[in-house]
Amino acid sequence: MPKIGVIYNDIKPIACQVAEDLQKQLESQGYQVYLATGYAGILGYSYPHRPVCHSPIEQIAPPGFDKDMSFAIVLGGDGTVLSASRQVAPHNIPLLTVNTGHLGFLTEIYLNQLSTALEQVLRGKYEIETRSMMKVTVIREDIALWEALCLNEVVVHREPLTSMCHFEIAIGRHSPVDIAADGVIISTPTGSTAYSLSAGGPVVTPDVPVFQLAPICPHSLASRALVFSDKELVTIFPATPNQMVMVVDGNAGCYILPDDQVHIMRSPYDVKFIRLQSPEFFRILREKLGWGLPHIAKPTSVELP
């Protein structure tokens, strides 16, 4: 019996209702349906000496979500998509993402399109778009005590009310660089349209195998965004006596102590998105972020003689 999953945002009543309706509909058609919330993919918060996310990344998938699942439907906004990606990427489960939130930059369809889209997917009329992810590990005293998958970005920044921080960053075999800033962002191509974009980083198309380093409010005109191969291991050394905060995909994370190291590398797992038509990244940029729209002068209200 074919297996289909549904991951939904359980704090949104509409997502809960649609999840129940989908389960009844698909089971009546002979499918085995597994429902789950995005909770297992939420990283949560931690205290300086008590990390939270110590579950191995391969073990956070909900019950029933495995390599035999045909695909999973995600009901929510971008946060739910990010959470679902962490849950299913190790099992290679494609995601049909449905926007029940606001911007929905990562979602494929809106809720009112779900019926038609689901029919198309069940007929096998779709394409798969693969997006790279990062594996983030915090090392303390040579022990890996925190790890997570990341689709958008890793941010290491100062705590409120502390001074500017120094970061020593080693990229692969290259000499370490020192950056004085409020924080640093390491992002994937998917994350280049998120926090990194707001920090002045460039937009990178999803098919380019790179990472991006963007400093946050750097204290130097020479500190600018850097794009480099995602085959390189990135190591962040906090060159400051103060503890810092690491946030992954805008979804909490853990404290970074002065002697910790943050290791970032391309994950062996990619996330697969179901696309109902050939992916057109520039169209999404235009529709969601207004990129490339023609500039048209507004007519003056003053009548010329």
Looking at the overall shape, the CATH architecture of the largest domain is 3-Layer(aba) Sandwich
Distance between the termini: 77 Å
Question: Could you name the CATH homologous superfamily of the largest domain?
Answer: Probable inorganic polyphosphate/atp-NAD kinase, domain 1
Question: What is the CATH T-level topology of the largest domain?
Answer: Rossmann fold
CATH class of the largest domain: Alpha Beta
**What share of the residues does DSSP label as strand, in percent?**
25-35%
- Please mark out the parts with pLDDT under 50 across 5 or more consecutive residues, or reply none: none
Estimated helix fraction: 10-25%
Q: Please count the helical segments.
A: 5
The total of beta strands comes to 19
- Please tell me the overall pLDDT: 90
- Strand order in space, largest sheet: 8-7-18-15-10-11
Structure class: alpha+beta
Largest sheet: 6 strands, antiparallel
Helices and strands, in order, run as EHEEHEEHEEEEEEEHEEEEEEEH
Over all CA atoms, what is the radius of gyration?
21 Å
The rough form would be described as globular
Total domains: 2
